[in-house]
Request: fold
Amino acid sequence: MARAKVKRASTVIDMTAMCDVSFLLLTFFVLTATARQPEALEVDTPASVTQVKIPDDKLGMVTVGDGGKLFFGVKGPQIRTRMLETMAENYKIQFTEEEKARFSLMDEFGVPIHNLKQLIAMDMEDRARPGLQPGIPSDSTNNLSNEMYHWIHAARTATAALYNEQMRISIKGDANEKYPDIKKVIDILQDQNLNRFSLITKLKGGIDAISDEE
Amino acid sequence: MAELNQDGGGKKGGKVRSKKQGGRVDLTAMVDLAFLLITFFMLTTSLNKPNAMDVTVPDKNKEDLEDRLEVADIRTTTILLAGNNKLVWYSGMFDNPIEGPETVDYGAEGIRKVLLRRLAEVPQKTNGEQLIVVIRPSDDATHRNLVDILDEMKIVNTQIFSLGTILEIENEFLRQHNLLSN
Reply:
């Protein structure tokens, strides 16, 4: 017996599954885009035509902003732990294993080393409160009073010891920061015979390019 | 499935409704929107990454050696980054400039024209030697000024440039022309 043909109702494609998938992806991208850790010091970097992206690892970043405050951050938890151990030795401060572990998750910090324990004990949200971190002390000497110099040095030795590679260093300065504050950082780098570094910029284009033409 | 089955319910005394077909919601527009947003978020996350501009500064310990290096005055152009987003350029030595000093603006209409002209004329005058640009930021220059001028070096493709320290006579000159606050 021939089967009776089922009459097709319509040719409308069912979009439900596609809708589900696309919203799942959308949720994923929204979350990854915003779940970035809040920066300890917000800076508005100047724009340039450079297309080179910053590397993802073995990078130390000095942030200059808010009237010459210096912040320092290193990519990579192992380098951070090693750097902290070196610094603890230099400044005769003991850090517990837990403090080291918590420090290795900190992207950026800007406190004198004697206040570092308090900062480590804080919550992530509290750390990012504007104005909380006063910046890392620095001066024009190579003594222990120039903590910035020693942080950079410790980070470089840690990178060299762990990966046998030179750490790249970059300066992320606020666009309205005066040159002497930037110069201070460049001088610290030059004191370590570090004559190649990079400046962090954002891409020039869109609204920025239009306002520049005026 | 996204089918809205409307149940008539058992209202008493109600009209006898013709039974509606299950209202199927058209999700096409919603899917369109979702994919548009996905594209947007994908692009913004990858474009968010900051760029790195490489800078090389002369070695500090060899500064004395470099002072002794003889360079023809005609090859050099010094750019002083003054306050108020202005810059001053001159060629040769400051006490005995070949050209300038002249105050110009940043950007295509200002310093870029000067640099392009100098880049073209220096090899002609010196049998193929290249232009040397010295950048000297004053205390009033901002970080944006510094990045702008380094960017300009890249745009006009200057091969040799360096970042130097401003001289006191140059500071004095800027002060006289109200381009430096103190």
Notes: Residues 63-176 of chain B form a domain with the Nucleotidyltransferase; domain 5 fold (CATH 3.30.420). Residues 8-12 of chain B have pLDDT under 50 and may be disordered. Chain B has five helices and eight strands. Chain B touches chain A through 51 residues (CB under 8 Å).
